[in-house]
Amino acid sequence: MSTSSDSKTIAVLNGPNLNLLGTRQPEIYGRQTLADIEAMCVKHSKSKGFDLRFQQTNIEGELVSMVQEARTCAAVLINAAGYTHTSVALLDALLTVDAPVIEVHLSSPHKREAIRHRSVIAPACTGVIAGFGALSYRLALDAAIALVDGSLGITEG
Ligand code: CA2
Prior knowledge:
Strand content: 15-25%
Helix content: 25-40%
Bound molecules: ligand CA2
Number of strands: 5
Shape: globular
Structural class: alpha/beta
CATH superfamily: Dehydroquinase, class II
Mean pLDDT: 95
CATH topology: Rossmann fold
Order of helices and strands: EHHEHEHEEH
Oligomer: single chain
CATH class: Alpha Beta
Protein backbone atom coordinates (compact mmCIF):
# COMPACT_ATOMS: atom_id res chain seq x y z
CA MET A 1 0.00 0.00 0.00
CA SER A 2 1.25 3.47 -0.85
CA THR A 3 1.86 5.97 1.93
CA SER A 4 2.70 9.65 1.52
CA SER A 5 5.94 9.27 3.48
CA ASP A 6 7.31 6.76 0.91
CA SER A 7 8.28 9.61 -1.39
CA LYS A 8 11.00 10.48 1.13
CA THR A 9 11.99 6.88 1.83
CA ILE A 10 14.84 4.96 0.21
CA ALA A 11 14.63 1.18 0.40
CA VAL A 12 17.87 -0.78 0.79
CA LEU A 13 17.26 -4.46 0.13
CA ASN A 14 19.79 -7.20 0.83
CA GLY A 15 19.81 -10.79 -0.33
CA PRO A 16 21.08 -14.13 0.88
CA ASN A 17 24.03 -14.59 3.23
CA LEU A 18 24.60 -10.87 3.72
CA ASN A 19 23.47 -11.41 7.33
CA LEU A 20 26.87 -13.12 7.74
CA LEU A 21 28.87 -10.01 6.89
CA GLY A 22 31.71 -9.32 9.28
CA THR A 23 32.00 -12.96 10.34
CA ARG A 24 33.60 -14.62 7.27
CA GLN A 25 35.64 -13.64 4.19
CA PRO A 26 36.55 -10.11 5.38
CA GLU A 27 39.20 -9.98 2.64
CA ILE A 28 36.35 -9.96 0.10
CA TYR A 29 33.47 -8.27 1.90
CA GLY A 30 35.15 -6.19 4.62
CA ARG A 31 34.85 -6.30 8.39
CA GLN A 32 31.65 -4.35 8.82
CA THR A 33 28.50 -6.19 9.77
CA LEU A 34 25.20 -5.63 8.01
CA ALA A 35 24.04 -3.78 11.15
CA ASP A 36 27.06 -1.46 10.79
CA ILE A 37 26.13 -0.81 7.16
CA GLU A 38 22.51 -0.18 8.10
CA ALA A 39 23.55 2.35 10.78
CA MET A 40 25.80 4.15 8.29
CA CYS A 41 23.02 4.23 5.66
CA VAL A 42 20.42 5.51 8.17
CA LYS A 43 22.78 8.28 9.28
CA HIS A 44 23.74 9.26 5.75
CA SER A 45 20.21 9.27 4.33
CA LYS A 46 18.94 11.22 7.35
CA SER A 47 21.61 13.88 6.74
CA LYS A 48 20.21 14.20 3.21
CA GLY A 49 16.59 14.41 4.36
CA PHE A 50 15.50 10.85 3.55
CA ASP A 51 14.15 8.02 5.67
CA LEU A 52 15.57 4.56 5.18
CA ARG A 53 13.97 1.12 4.97
CA PHE A 54 16.74 -1.48 5.36
CA GLN A 55 15.88 -5.16 4.96
CA GLN A 56 17.62 -8.50 4.45
CA THR A 57 16.35 -11.94 3.57
CA ASN A 58 17.82 -15.27 2.56
CA ILE A 59 14.65 -16.24 0.68
CA GLU A 60 14.15 -15.36 -2.99
CA GLY A 61 10.36 -14.94 -2.76
CA GLU A 62 10.72 -12.65 0.25
CA LEU A 63 13.16 -10.48 -1.69
CA VAL A 64 10.60 -10.28 -4.52
CA SER A 65 7.94 -9.21 -1.98
CA MET A 66 10.29 -6.60 -0.52
CA VAL A 67 10.79 -5.17 -4.02
CA GLN A 68 7.03 -5.05 -4.54
CA GLU A 69 6.59 -3.24 -1.21
CA ALA A 70 9.32 -0.76 -2.16
CA ARG A 71 7.62 0.26 -5.42
CA THR A 72 6.32 3.48 -3.85
CA CYS A 73 9.69 4.50 -2.41
CA ALA A 74 11.75 7.34 -3.84
CA ALA A 75 14.51 4.92 -4.82
CA VAL A 76 15.56 1.31 -4.32
CA LEU A 77 19.09 0.08 -3.63
CA ILE A 78 19.49 -3.66 -3.98
CA ASN A 79 22.34 -6.00 -3.17
CA ALA A 80 20.69 -9.17 -4.36
CA ALA A 81 23.86 -11.17 -3.52
CA GLY A 82 23.72 -14.60 -5.21
CA TYR A 83 20.26 -13.92 -6.69
CA THR A 84 21.89 -11.17 -8.79
CA HIS A 85 23.21 -13.87 -11.05
CA THR A 86 20.20 -16.19 -11.18
CA SER A 87 16.82 -14.65 -10.45
CA VAL A 88 14.43 -13.87 -13.30
CA ALA A 89 11.68 -13.49 -10.67
CA LEU A 90 13.65 -10.68 -9.09
CA LEU A 91 14.25 -9.06 -12.50
CA ASP A 92 10.50 -9.20 -13.18
CA ALA A 93 9.75 -7.54 -9.82
CA LEU A 94 12.37 -4.83 -10.35
CA LEU A 95 11.00 -4.07 -13.82
CA THR A 96 7.76 -2.95 -12.13
CA VAL A 97 9.58 -0.27 -10.12
CA ASP A 98 9.32 3.19 -11.68
CA ALA A 99 11.71 4.78 -9.19
CA PRO A 100 15.50 4.63 -9.69
CA VAL A 101 16.96 1.22 -8.84
CA ILE A 102 20.67 0.96 -8.05
CA GLU A 103 22.40 -2.42 -8.03
CA VAL A 104 24.98 -2.50 -5.22
CA HIS A 105 27.80 -4.90 -4.47
CA LEU A 106 30.49 -4.89 -1.81
CA SER A 107 32.95 -6.74 -4.02
CA SER A 108 33.50 -6.29 -7.73
CA PRO A 109 31.81 -9.32 -9.32
CA HIS A 110 33.73 -8.78 -12.58
CA LYS A 111 37.03 -9.40 -10.77
CA ARG A 112 35.73 -12.72 -9.52
CA GLU A 113 34.57 -16.06 -10.96
CA ALA A 114 32.84 -16.04 -14.37
CA ILE A 115 29.55 -17.11 -12.77
CA ARG A 116 29.40 -13.67 -11.10
CA HIS A 117 30.03 -11.70 -14.31
CA ARG A 118 26.44 -11.74 -15.47
CA SER A 119 23.81 -9.76 -13.61
CA VAL A 120 20.31 -10.96 -14.44
CA ILE A 121 18.82 -7.90 -12.71
CA ALA A 122 20.98 -5.22 -14.40
CA PRO A 123 18.40 -4.50 -17.15
CA ALA A 124 16.05 -3.21 -14.44
CA CYS A 125 18.67 -1.00 -12.80
CA THR A 126 19.63 2.60 -13.54
CA GLY A 127 23.22 1.84 -12.57
CA VAL A 128 25.58 -0.40 -10.66
CA ILE A 129 28.01 0.45 -7.85
CA ALA A 130 30.41 -2.33 -6.92
CA GLY A 131 33.80 -3.00 -5.43
CA PHE A 132 34.05 -0.46 -2.62
CA GLY A 133 32.98 -2.54 0.36
CA ALA A 134 30.53 -0.78 2.65
CA LEU A 135 31.30 2.48 0.86
CA SER A 136 29.41 1.07 -2.15
CA TYR A 137 26.19 1.58 -0.17
CA ARG A 138 26.96 5.22 0.62
CA LEU A 139 27.97 5.94 -2.97
CA ALA A 140 24.75 4.28 -4.14
CA LEU A 141 22.70 6.39 -1.71
CA ASP A 142 24.31 9.54 -3.11
CA ALA A 143 23.61 8.38 -6.68
CA ALA A 144 19.99 7.56 -5.82
CA ILE A 145 19.45 10.93 -4.14
CA ALA A 146 20.99 12.77 -7.10
CA LEU A 147 18.65 10.89 -9.44
CA VAL A 148 15.65 11.68 -7.23
CA ASP A 149 16.41 15.38 -6.87
CA GLY A 150 17.19 15.68 -10.58
CA SER A 151 20.67 17.10 -10.07
CA LEU A 152 22.21 14.48 -12.40
CA GLY A 153 19.96 15.57 -15.24
CA ILE A 154 19.46 11.91 -16.19
CA THR A 155 15.84 11.03 -16.87
CA GLU A 156 16.20 7.87 -18.92
CA GLY A 157 18.28 4.75 -18.84
O1 CA2 B 1 29.85 -8.32 -3.47
C1 CA2 B 1 28.65 -8.43 -3.21
O2 CA2 B 1 28.03 -7.61 -2.55
C2 CA2 B 1 27.90 -9.69 -3.66
O3 CA2 B 1 26.56 -9.32 -3.96
C3 CA2 B 1 27.96 -10.65 -2.50
C4 CA2 B 1 27.33 -12.01 -2.81
C5 CA2 B 1 27.89 -12.59 -4.10
O4 CA2 B 1 27.18 -13.77 -4.45
C6 CA2 B 1 27.80 -11.61 -5.27
O5 CA2 B 1 28.42 -12.19 -6.39
C7 CA2 B 1 28.49 -10.31 -4.93
C8 CA2 B 1 27.58 -13.00 -1.68
C9 CA2 B 1 27.17 -12.54 -0.33
C10 CA2 B 1 27.70 -13.52 0.69
O6 CA2 B 1 27.97 -12.81 1.85
C11 CA2 B 1 28.79 -13.36 2.77
C12 CA2 B 1 29.18 -12.58 3.81
C13 CA2 B 1 30.02 -13.07 4.77
C14 CA2 B 1 30.46 -14.39 4.70
C15 CA2 B 1 30.07 -15.18 3.66
C16 CA2 B 1 29.23 -14.67 2.68
